[in-house]
Amino acid sequence: MKKFLLPFFVLVLIGTTQAQMVINAGDMPVPGTVITMTEDTTPSGALPVFTTGANVNWDFTALNNQSPDVIAFVDPSTTPYYSSFPNATLCYMAADSMFGYLFANNDYAVALGARAKMDTIEIIMKYDPDDTLFTFPYTFGTTMESHPCGAFKLFYGDSIDVGLGNIYVDSVRITMCYDKNTVVDGWGNVTTPVGTYQALRSSRVEIEEQEFAIYYMGMWIPVNTSSDTTLVIEWNMKNTGVPLISVYADPNDSSFTNIEWLTVSPSFGFNDIVVSNELNIYPNPVADEATISFDGDIPELITITDISGREIISFEVNNQTKMKIDVSDIDPGIYFVLSAKRGQSYRTGRFIKL
User: Fold this and answer.
1) E strands within 163-298?
2) Per-residue DSSP letter, 286
3) Domain spans, the chain
């Protein structure tokens, strides 16, 4: 009997090992990948957030879709801030005009920094050291540390009271440093309201130290520091580059108030021309002027909206098969094109504005 049992258990063990998910460098997203996501701001406490282990089935079908968003991955060399991140191999664009720059090789993937906007103020922040996102192979039992630091400066040009009376402050500097310790502690299948996906679960204790400093009399003077600790729990799948599910919890009592999750599988092929129901948009991404053309039936009206559905541009087609649209004045981001005829919408497309 023992002669048969040993091979049987070996086969079971091998089968279990093969079932475990592994994310490698080739599983990172490519330029053209578009991801839609949302946020549940009132998540149920019954969700299996803290379940770990092997071959787990996590049921997240009760997640709510309350704050839709979208990001797209593009070739960093085509973006306007590439000169600040010349080593980047990938860039993601968010709807809030944020550009995030990444570097990936066969051993790891890191975040180099980002460009963002605060009201009308442009901010470019570089991490030093970089922020480690993945080490490859990334699988059950993987552990990682990351200690990124970044800072940005803003012109202030006004007086401020820092406890010594009002003094004129030329500029302010905000520095953010993180200590992140991650362990991949589960693998299995995750079911969301839109499907079931194979994923790896990880938990991370994230400590953020923030310093606010003013430039006064030729030197930077810290005037305020703060610290915050968050427990971040994520489920990662292949090809997305961003977690399938992200939970931000209080490390003291494990309470959580919001969950971010992907609403569709990644789509690919967001190339130079996007064709959707015979509607063509090019070049894509676009900086100043986009061309829209039609094959076959010509619509009467074209409307361009942002991801929240807000109308940005609307115009009549006037029986043209091709037209050029000036998009130089709209903010960077992802936009959707809707065409209509006789009051019915029947063609859609999308493009990235750089």
Assistant:
1) 166-192, 195-216, 219-236, 245-249, 256-262, 274-276, 279-282, 289-294
2) B
3) 21-262, 274-353
Q: How far apart are CA 337 and CA 77, in angstroms?
A: 25
- CATH class as words, domain 274-353: mainly beta
Buried b (16+ CB within 10 A) or exposed e, 52-87: beeeeebebeebeeeeebbbbbbebeebebbebbee
Distance CA(103)–CA(180), nearest Å, equals 18
Which residues are CB-neighbours of 328 under 8 A, at least 6 positions away? Answer: 287, 288, 289
Tell me the whole-structure pTM to 2 decimals.
Answer: 0.76
Provide the residue-wise pLDDT of the chain in tens; the chain has 354 residues. 333 333 333 333 334 444 689 999 999 998 878 788 889 999 999 999 999 999 999 999 999 998 877 788 888 998 889 999 999 999 998 766 789 999 999 999 999 999 987 666 788 999 999 999 999 999 999 999 999 999 999 888 787 776 667 788 888 899 999 999 999 999 999 999 989 999 999 999 999 999 999 888 889 989 889 999 999 999 999 999 999 999 999 999 999 999 999 986 554 433 444 444 467 888 888 889 999 888 777 888 788 877 655 678 888 888 888 989 999 988 887 787 877 766 555 556 778 888
* 263 Cβ neighbours under 8 A, 6+ residues apart: 36, 37, 38, 65, 68, 194
CA distance 81 to 65: 32
114, β-bridge pairs: 100, 125
Identity at 121, one-letter amino acid code: I
Under DSSP, the state recorded for 267 is B
- DSSP 8-state symbol, 252: T
Q: How far apart are CA 115 and CA 97, in angstroms?
A: 8
Amino acid sitting at position 230: T
Q: Which two tokens stand for residue 193?
A: 């309201």
How far apart, in whole angstroms, are the C-alpha atoms of residue 348 and residue 338? 5
Q: Give Cα separations from 159 to 7, 164, 166, 194, 219 (angstroms).
A: 78, 12, 6, 53, 16
278 token code pair: 């015979």
